[in-house]
Specification:
The complex is a heterodimer of chains A (321) and B (284).
Chain A: H1 5-55, H2 58-61, E1 65-66, E2 71-72, H3 75-106, H4 109-124, H5 127-144, H6 146-154, H7 173-196, H8 201-209, H9 214-225, H10 227-243, H11 246-251, H12 269-276, H13 283-313
Antiparallel strand pairs in A: 1-2
Helix pairs in contact in A: 1-13, 3-7, 3-10, 3-12, 4-7, 5-7, 7-10, 8-9, 10-13, 12-13
Chain B: H1 3-40, H2 46-50, H3 63-94, H4 99-112, H5 116-131, H6 136-161, H7 164-172, H8 177-188, H9 190-205, H10 232-240, H11 245-276, H12 279-282
The chains are: A mainly alpha (321), B mainly alpha (284).
């Protein structure tokens, strides 16, 4: 068969049409990502409107969450969310730093692969499995060991002592924070490893050249160089901790209250939604839960966006986690 | 103690601590896996795969939950995967230098770490309220929304690794860009795209929060996407929180199954990336 000029022209036209269609299709899908963010925010605002209209700004400042009296304030879940995330950060950040140092500076090459896989697998374990483990293994263990010790020794101190008083329930905000710290550890570690790698070898070699120890090279050269990125990594972990749902639902204790003690049961925004949504009766109750979701989404998106911006300054995008 | 000795001691202590921290983190992983194995294996039998979820105290398996999870995960991947890869194609090929691409890339990275429970709320308001009831399709849509950012990110990274020379060669033969992308770039990036999709499946197969108020649960066998659909994560949640021993035992078995599946996927994805990925990754 010979290719005639006419059939070649139709072929070209067909190709051009396919080209246009494909290009538009990819562009449509790309903008769908933007639409997704906008859609989530719009739908959440619409859903939470009845509750926000009823409680106004008080929704953020009241700590009474009473479905029976139809009184809803987000302060207790908000408090729980922030406290558990802070506990998680307090523990996860030094550990992530240590692990990143170990993996980038000390670990022999042949061990690096298996160990970093192990750390990353901590991120692959589903949230619900952390919840199960936290509720049946970790919380009873804390109830027997750490919590009585804290109550006996730290609880008697003035000031900080208030944080560790009351009976050891096992579950509670402290336990939720500890479980969260394990869950966000791989994320922070991944970012820290990535930013440590951006420190120029010439700087490190210069430091070694003037006689610095390995630790001094890390602490005085690599850390100052990658400070912004490290903060970005910490905030990325924070964003994760704030929105983590299932594990916290299992171990936080599901009590919408603000207690002075970290050992007392509490709740977080995500856990409140997970626990109560399917049982919520009445439009105000449902709307209040959606408003909680809106607060959570805006909070996490702000934290994560700030984190990613910091990482962009270092020309890394942060891990695909 | 001389200054030098002090500095050396500090170095050894600090680096030693970092090693201990790494060991502790790995020990936690080992503890979790050990717990899963010791609690989950007892309940593991053929029954788990052949019988429906039991009433409290009765005997049964997880068949309907496994079926529902597989169905919704597959559907979520089928909906979210192509959208993700096409969006990544725009970011890596057509819109590489456009200003909008920077914004989309950034928003996508933000969505990547956004809380999944909010996705559940979104789909609830979008689909469940309109349909008037919970359904398997709503669950699948929620999962697909989680698949999209993961796929966009991994696929774009992989497409960018394909050398420009291949594209130029194809263009030199007279191929339109779309032809180049479909017949040259995608095949060259095949293992990378596979890795991304596997990671996306790993991510959604353990997700519970987005299913709580989309697919909900179903105690019975249902293959209708228009009905509430049983799924492993929800069943684990419900059974673990219950006071019944047989339910709790099944929850552990279900958790073991999910975790083994997810870990298997993560490790497989890693192996594919290492074995078939671009050279520079192999040197790691």
């Amino acid at each position: 068969m010979t290719v005639t000029a006419v059939s070649f022209r139709t072929h070209l036209r067909r190709q051009a049409r396919a080209e246009l269609a494909f290009r538009l299709l990819t562009r449509f899908c790309a903008f769908l990502v933007l639409a997704l963010l906008a859609g989530v925010i719009l739908i959440l605002i619409r859903g939470s409107w009845p509750a926000l209209k009823l409680f106004k700004f008080g929704f953020l400042t009241h700590d009474i969450w009473d479905p029976v009296a139809v009184q809803f304030g987000a302060l207790a879940p908000l408090y729980g969310t922030v406290i558990t995330s802070l506990i998680a950060m307090l523990l996860a950040v030094p550990f992530a730093f240590g692990i990143a140092v170990f993996l980038t500076e000390i670990c022999p090459l042949w061990l690096r692969g298996p160990i970093s896989t192990g750390i990353e697998l901590l991120a692959a374990v589903p949230s619900i499995v952390y919840g199960l483990w936290g509720l049946f293994i970790f919380a009873p263990m804390l109830q027997q060991t750490l919590q009585p010790w804290l109550i006996a020794h730290v609880g008697t101190l003035p000031g900080v002592g208030h944080l560790f008083r009351g009976p050891p329930f096992g579950i509670g905000l402290l336990t939720a924070g500890l479980v969260l710290s394990i869950m966000v550890l791989p994320f922070i570690t991944a970012v820290m490893r990535e930013v440590f790698a951006t420190a120029p070898a010439s700087l490190k070699e210069a430091a070694y050249g003037v006689g610095a120890t390995r630790w001094e090279v890390i602490w005085d050269v690599v850390v100052p160089y990658s400070r912004v990125g490290m903060v970005g990594g910490v905030m990325l972990g924070l964003g994760r901790a704030l929105g983590e749902t299932m594990a916290v639902t299992f171990v936080a204790g599901n009590a919408a209250q603000i207690s002075a003690s970290l050992l007392a049961p509490g709740t977080t925004i995500a856990a409140s939604i997970a626990n109560e949504f399917t049982e919520a009766v009445g439009p105000v109750y449902l709307s209040a839960l959606i408003a909680l979701g809106l607060i959570l989404f805006l909070l996490t998106v702000t934290v994560i966006a700030a984190a990613r911006l910091m990482l962009l300054r270092l020309d890394t995008r942060g891990p695909a986690l | 103690m001389s200054n030098l000795t002090r500095r050396r001691v500090v170095a050894v202590l600090a680096l030693g601590t970092s090693g201990v921290m790494t060991l502790l983190a790995l020990a936690v992983l080992a503890a979790i896996l050990w717990t899963l194995l010791s609690h989950g294996l007892q309940g593991l039998s053929l029954r788990v795969f052949t019988q429906m979820t039991p009433p409290p105290g009765g005997s049964g398996g997880l068949l309907n939950a496994i079926f529902g999870s597989v169905t919704m995960t597959a559907l979520g991947l089928l909906m979210g995967g192509p959208i993700g890869i096409l969006a990544a194609t725009y970011l890596a090929e057509y819109g590489r230098k456009e200003r909008w691409s920077v914004v989309i890339r950034f928003i996508n990275d933000v969505l990547l770490s956004a809380p999944s429970i909010v996705v559940g709320l979104f789909v609830y308001a979008l689909l469940v309220v309109q349909m008037g009831h919970f359904s398997g399709i709503a669950g699948a849509v929620a999962l697909s929304i989680i698949v999209i950012p993961v796929t966009v990110r991994t696929a774009e990274d992989m497409l960018r690794l394909i050398p420009q020379g291949l594209r130029h060669a194809s263009a030199g033969l007279g191929a339109h860009p779309w032809r180049t992308i479909v017949s040259v770039v995608y095949p060259a990036a095949r293992s990378g795209l596979m890795t991304g999709l596997l990671l996306a499946v790993a991510r959604i197969s353990g997700e519970t929060a987005p299913l709580l108020f989309t697919a909900l649960n179903n105690q019975y066998w249902s293959n209708s996407l228009n009905q509430p659909m049983a799924n492993l994560p929800y069943v684990i949640f419900q059974f673990a929180m219950s006071p019944y021993k047989n339910w709790q035992s099944l929850a552990w078995t279900g958790a073991l199954l999910i975790t083994l599946f997810v870990l298997f996927l993560s490790i497989t994805a890693r192996m594919i990336a290492r074995l078939f990925g671009p050279q520079e990754r192999r040197l790691e």
